[in-house]
Amino acid sequence: MSEAGESPGSRSIAASAVSALKKAGRRVTRPASPAQRFHSLDLLATLVAVVDEQGCVLFANAALEDALGMSRRSINGTRLQECFTEQSLLDTALQGARGNEFAALRYDAWLRRQAHDPLPVHVVVAQTETAGEVIVELLPLEQQTRQEREERLLDQAQANKELIRNLAHEIKNPLGGIRGAAQLLQMELGSKELIEYTQVIIHEADRLQSLVDRLLAPHRRPHVVGDVNIHEVCERVRSLILAEFPRGLRVVRDYDTSIPEFRGDREQLIQAVLNITHNAAQALFERIAAGDGEIIFRTRVNRQVTFGKQRYRLALELHVIDNGPGVPDSIKDRIFFPLVSGREGGSGLGLTLAQTFVQQHHGLIECESVPGRTDFKILIPLP
């Protein structure tokens, strides 16, 4: 049993929700039934049960019902230990709660499910302010891994941003001097052959200057906020891509038209989606040549979602899906890094800029890729 006691001030998400509910309950008439007292736990996406000190379930939230494949009525009154492959782990945790040995305790376990394989979960057992009640919160390990990956991506993006900004400024100053010196030298030279060398210097200096400008572009341009309709963004990108690839490519719309407008920078979002879609179209060159290239724009609303270290009631999901060869394994973990490209001649800036623009909307980009299907998912909070 891998467990770690926490400080008395430490709380799980569910325990904090219950604590707030208890405080609110002191100001009003306290509801009698557990279903009324703990109804706010149904808003959590994590699996939560309130049990007595013996493990008998007093309340199970909707997420736990779905995971177990059982109704709340059939779960209530049963021993929660029976839902685990190793019942003794929860017995030991509840014994510690009875002895007031910790504020919260964590360990990993396997949750039994009807008609499904056991689910690996991270269990958080926390005391509440009411004697005889214990909160048991179950975090699917896939979700925990996803949250850790998101935090790592955010940290990497922040480090990339600082690196790009500092590096670009360091390059820019000497670059101007090199170009200027080459121009002066060219004016003094009489030989046409030697002038060709100075022209190479000037041309390469201009190319590097263009690269530096592109690196700094997201930080220079002001964030212009207005009402954004994500489907107008998709339609603009669709028309641009089909103009560049008029044959052999099909761009499919799969829209949820109920998605509300939100506040954002329309031009930045168009550029972000365009960069992702353009990358997808370039990866489809063989399928486009064969006439069966396909890109799908899919929009959905995600509820009670956590990303970027915050929880949102509603979030936009925009998927850009292609049927190309997939992202090479060698760069899968680095595709959002600057100057990393899976295509010969690519600048490696498209996805970096897309990630920057989406993050300026407090959003996140994720990528899942296997041969024959690559799915870039943009998540943006909705009001």
Strand content: 25-35%
Ranges with pLDDT <50 over ≥5 residues? 1-10
The CATH superfamily of the largest domain bears the name Histidine kinase-like ATPase, C-terminal domain
How many DSSP-defined strands?
A: 13
- The oligomeric state is single chain
Secondary-structure-based class equals: alpha+beta
Total domains: 3
Report strand order across the widest sheet.
1-4-5-6-2-3
Name of the CATH class of the largest domain: Alpha Beta
Q: What is the gyration radius calculated from CA atoms? A: 27 Å
Explain what this protein looks like in three dimensions.
By secondary structure, the protein is α+β, with helices and mostly antiparallel strands. The protein has 3 domains: 138 residues, PAS domain (Beta-Lactamase), CATH 3.30.450; 74 residues; 156 residues, Heat Shock Protein 90, CATH 3.30.565.10. 44% of the residues lie in helices and 25% in strands. It is built from 11 helices and 13 strands. A 6-stranded antiparallel beta sheet has the order 1-4-5-6-2-3. The chain has a 5-stranded mixed beta sheet with strand order 8-10-11-13-12. Strand 10 and strand 11 form a beta hairpin. Helix 6 packs antiparallel against helix 7 and helix 9 packs antiparallel against helix 11. The protein is elongated and about 95 Å long. The chain starts with a strand and ends with a strand. The N terminus is likely disordered.
